[in-house]
Amino acid sequence: xxISRRSVAAGFALLVFNSFxxxxxxxxxPEPNGADTVASPKLHSGTVRITEEKPDGxxxxxxxxxxxxxxxxxxxxxxxxxxxxxxxxxxILDINSLLKDAESFCTLxxxxxxxxxxxxxxxxxxxxxxxxxxxxxxxxDNATRPMERLNxxxxxxxxxxxxGTKLIDxxxxxxxxxxxxxxxxxxxxxxxxxxxxxGHPEDPTKHINYKDVAKLAQISDSLTxxxxxxxxxxxxxxxxxxxxxRREAVAATGRFKLGVVRENTRxxxxxxxxxxxxxxxxxEIAPPVTIQERIEAICGFCQMKIDDDLNIDVAAPFLQxxxxxxxxxxxxxxxxxxxxxxxxxxxxxxxxxxLSYSFALWREAAKTVPKPRYPEYITSLANDVIATxxxxxxxxxxxxxDSNSLAQxxxxxxxxxxxxxxxxxxxxxKDDPTSLLPIVPKxxxxxxxxxxxxMPPAxxxxxxxxAPPMKMxxxxxxMPPIKN
Length: 484
Prior knowledge:
two-stranded antiparallel sheet; mainly alpha
């Protein structure tokens, strides 16, 4: 039995509409005037520079009016749940239409023949996020209706399309506040994810704020804190809500372009790459991590730049078990769909394509890695993954897949530190003694949770009775081919 998305939506409804109170006074939204509509296309195209005029100039006023319009409009009737007096000849939009309009406003296009956004466009984007963050603070400080708080965070997420840097603070405020609901955090994670996807115009492999390493580390730490926490849940519906929101946090972490956030001195400040590996291996995370979250973690990890201190002979072997389990999940899901004529738990063709693409990028990046760092671990694993997932990518979960090569890859490619047969925890990053894998030395067991009998929270291991060493697949008894 699967819990439908409607049930998950009902769970979110409980989070959002758990109480109602009178709305606090929030300024009325300014309607953009004629001067604003004239300035807008010039700002978007970069034909004018907002930094060349005084703060009270017409360009600044136009940007401020648009920012306040979207922020304050989202918490006014009818968007906040209050009825609005209908006037003859007026058309009342719903909140989704307002959000789409804001997202369109915040989507900047390069102006040919230029291939990147101009400096003038980036200055406009930065000023807009400054003004929107200030307006959002007013709403978050004063809004008491759950719908109003939800709407402003959704607006921040939509406006994260604008390649500015100042929306991070209000989004992190929501994520780090234990009193804010998971419904708000869901959209805050989406906003963070969109922000991290912005590449710097001069170097797309870097974040748009790559120089502000302290802020990037703050983002990474906030996401990590949410992901790895041990949470209790009352029933299967609440469990699914937690997993659904946490998946967005994992996806946002996977948008980091670097596995390690470092100072100029190379001192590590935060390791989003290790967080993604913890998603695959940390049994203390509760509720248990789902296969959907593991896909996000694997794709994100493989698309990060290979850090100079990453132990490749550790990273690749610790990705393999989740990939083998992915194949089992696909086979089990197809069997269940065939017997119960029910829907799939995820789009297998798309997920297989995402995994293959991520490993193709990782394989390409490994070409420049020096041989003493064992880049062949990445190359060989990527080759096996791409070949094994090709049938699923074309035909779906019911495809016949020869998984022998992928299943046998790990016994042939153990971490170098285990060459003597001593399978002790190993370091993911050689300069970080805390980046041990496995977190608890045992193979992760991935099971589709039973909605009628959800898995209990993981227990804290007894230091006097540690778990046995991690078991590796038996090369003499490989996983059989998957058949439909």
